[in-house]
């Protein structure tokens, strides 16, 4: 039997590498909490989170993505003016093929004019140099079918690496608008035969591959994923099952808004592999109550994952900015 180790050796072995305080400081520094602009401001996020924004069309889902993108590409400070942004790049993958880049640039200009007016007092000028820097941080990709989208994900590592070399911090937000754009096309093709007699790529296989490729990207390039998704609704009589856990295999998710009748049933059509991949889910819908804002449409939001017992209201003002009240 070997003799016991000296007490000094045992103490050295038991000595921790870092204290709990040092651990928290390191984790929060490497993966800090990220607060997004309204209506995504209720919860803190971290890189690696997958946030799904679900709602019918139109209900300002793309505008929510745009507001978050602008907040990301704006610098924290520029020439003595505080902009409160992150100064990081955004990768926007357009699957709906309806994104208006000109509209995006106009909203960015209005944000810059608003910040400059607070400091300089000029309501019509903006810093063109800063505008150019911000637009360079916005990376846009358009895909027309699932195979093109999968090819984009498989080759995205090289582009992200290149951006990381040119821009020190690299891409921080990966946006997908909208993640279910090719669902019905893929579903129809999955049941048909190809010209070589083999079955086409199934819907389940497409979604599984998509999730795997995004996971691989996140393991190398820490990013926050924001994915818009069009909603499909049924009536109250179709089911009474209410599900808050996306990991369960089910095709129905009931919506419950305090401000409206409980007759909206969101039918979950994405495969369970995607539902399990989502870490946060917020639902957006248009409100029938426009009494206080007759000239602007009112929208309601509710957090479903995690479930929060309140909802937010917001409008889109004349400048195209989203305002929560």
From TrEMBL:
SUPFAM superfamilies: P-loop containing nucleoside triphosphate hydrolases (SSF52540). InterPro entries: P-loop_NTPase (IPR027417), RecA_ATP-bd (IPR020588), XRCC2 (IPR030547). CDD domains: XRCC2 (cd19490). Residues 26-238 form the RecA family profile domain. This is DNA repair protein XRCC2-like protein. It comes from Abeliophyllum distichum.
